[in-house]
Amino acid sequence: GFVVMAGPCAVEGAEQLELSARAVAHAGAHLLRGGVFKPRTSPYAFQGMGEPGLKLLVDAGKRHGLPIISEVMETEQLPLMAQHADILQVGARNMQNFGLLRALGRVRKPVLLKRGLSATVQEWLNAAEYILAGGNEQVILCERGIRTFETAMRNTLDLAAVAWAKQHSHLPVIVDPSHATGIPSLIQPMSLAAAAAGADGLLIEVHAKPELALCDGQQAMSPEDFMTLMRRLPGVLAAVDRHLWKPEGPAQIAGAR
Known about the structure:
By secondary structure, the chain is of the alpha/beta class. The protein has a single domain, classed as Aldolase class I (TIM Barrel). The protein is built from ten helices and eight strands. Strands 1-2-3-4-5-6-7-8 form an eight-stranded parallel beta barrel, surrounded by seven helices. β4 (about 85-90), α4 and β5 (about 110-115) form a beta-alpha-beta unit.
């Protein structure tokens, strides 16, 4: 089945997270996403709440019956993150952080590996091999847009790479339309296109108050727009003989990935 992971770019506080978590759970998301360690382009930008944010994320996930996914940026963070997160995310800028990939190969938790913003599809698959070679076979690939000469959008979503990776690897492939476009009005059409192209799921930024977000608010979906997307996804999936995943319980989501 098709899996949807949604939530804020960053955990900013208890109230903000609760509003977003409640909204994505109500709309039918399968996992709650939220960054507690944030790789920012500028060292002066909000870097995330760290361990206190992780506790808020864990609590919100439990309250709403959703497993959680969050990014691990360096090997030092791995023991803490592996203990609490159901899926560990490797960001685009860490796709070829080989020390981190090797360490994740020794962990028995699902890993979501984002494609680097200038990486070829083969380099992306090779990065996944570092984790697989370590003995961790639970790897999910994530296409999040690549850097091209186009400036209208934050990045360029490479849907051909999704279809190619599905044909040339045995791993599930999901799409992050939020980073891929950087424009909220493009998230729904690109999400539906990803579903039609054969993606196994979506990773979407949803913020209850995008205009107040400390991180990537300009590309976050509102809860209302996310609800609309979740209503439209089944129709597109049905057209290609697929369906939204219906888990039997929260534990099954993390266990099945």
